[in-house]
Amino acid sequence: MILALKLTFWLSLALVFYTYIGYGILLYIILKIKRLIWGTPLEPNLPLDDRLLPDVTLMICAYNEQDIIAEKMDNIRQLDYPAEHLTVMWVTDGSNDQSNELLSQYPEVKLVFSPERRGKAAAMQHGLRENKAGIVVFTDANTMLNAAAIKEIVRQMKKMDVSCVSGEKRVAARTKGETAAEGEGLYWKYESTLKRWDSELYSAMGAAGELFAVKMEHYVPAPSNALLDDFMMSMLIVKNGHRIAYTSEAYAMEYGSADLQEESKRKRRIAAGGLQSIWWLRSLMNPFKHPKVAFQFVSHRVLRWSITPIALLLLIPLNILLVWQGAGLVYDVILFLQIAFYLMAAVGYILSKMGRPSKLLNIPGYFIFMNVNVFRGMAYLRTHKTSGTWEKARRG
């Protein structure tokens, strides 16, 4: 009995460690060895003459975004890409506010409207039917791009076998101490590092909807009921033998969620979409058919969206049982560390509610918050698996 408990405990602990820390360490070591053997690959260059740049469509799929349109259009007009090669397309999916009227005031905008709200994946497909460019860059209405973003994406597309480019997501807090925004920002800094290393090893494992691009010759539509349309679209490109490049030189800046309740809306939808995507992309876990992708996909995505949160949940009761049975000092120490970690998260949550947040204590709090929402995502998927629409999270 005690041997089985010990084995289950150590397997669970190893799984949690590998998913959140170990995979990053392993990637770092592999890349160090790879650079020593093969060196650093040369980066492609863009033509010096802007007239030789390819045609690009910048697509914004939006639902009732009238409040952000002026700011977004100001941002678009600051992009460093020749206007004659850039089509700005807004796809308003079932919007019933003043979005269409406001967008009609911008002569450079190509407006595609659907009176019925069918979800972002359906809106993307609607917009792409009207597209003429070879490269389409997708971004959200509430994210602001750096001026060089489009050129950097086009440059990345020149790399061998690259048919999708993922830009970097950056999260800002409007005011100091916003727990949801600061926690999300710390998470995305770590996530961005993993994506960059994934890309260098072979391919990034998916793209985020804030900023990504596809070559239309290799585009595969995501299912219309996809909860993570951007992730599915990008990974279907990988499934067909092409790569996703990741670059921090093209980035999208947005404010974090207004509070943890709003952030929970995002996290449970992402967790639900992750589970949905794992099933649809299950063939990518075959190491005989996709050796590199299987290693990266399982390590970076599958584990954190499926069995690792369960392993994390098991650690406390398993640890208590082992201590109760006198399994040894090491289990006493680990139980103490676990309790301390959860207490830090609880104190951090209480302090944030009191208006005295701690940046240090936000880390354990946000970690637990993410994993709790994986379980909430399982329930969310049962009620949303037939529809690609969702409730937007209110930003800070």
Span of the ends, CA to CA: 50 Å
Strand order of the largest sheet: 3-2-1-4-7-6-8-5
Order of helices and strands: HEHEHEHEEHEHEHEHHHHH
- What is the typical, i.e. mean, pLDDT? 89
Find the count of extended strands (DSSP E, 2+ residues): 8
Output the structural class.
Answer: alpha/beta
Q: How would the global form be characterised?
A: globular
Taking the sheet with the most strands, its summary is: 8 strands, mixed
Strand percentage lies at 5-15%
Helix proportion range = 40-55%
Oligomeric state as shown: single chain
Poorly predicted segments? none
Number of helices: 12
Backbone CA Rg: 22 Å
What does this structure look like?
The chain is of the alpha/beta class and 396 residues long. Helices cover 53% and strands 14% of the residues. It has helices at 2-38, 69-77, 99-103, 120-129, 149-156, 179-201, 229-239, 260-280, 291-305, 307-324, 329-353, 359-384, and strands at 56-62, 86-93, 109-114, 135-139, 144-145, 162-172, 211-215, 243-255. An eight-stranded mixed beta sheet has the order 3-2-1-4-7-6-8-5. 40% of the residues are buried.
List the helices and strands and how they pair.
Blueprint: H1 2-38, E1 56-62, H2 69-77, E2 86-93, H3 99-103, E3 109-114, H4 120-129, E4 135-139, E5 144-145, H5 149-156, E6 162-172, H6 179-201, E7 211-215, H7 229-239, E8 243-255, H8 260-280, H9 291-305, H10 307-324, H11 329-353, H12 359-384
Parallel strand pairs: 1-2, 1-4, 2-3, 6-8
Antiparallel strand pairs: 4-7, 5-8, 6-7
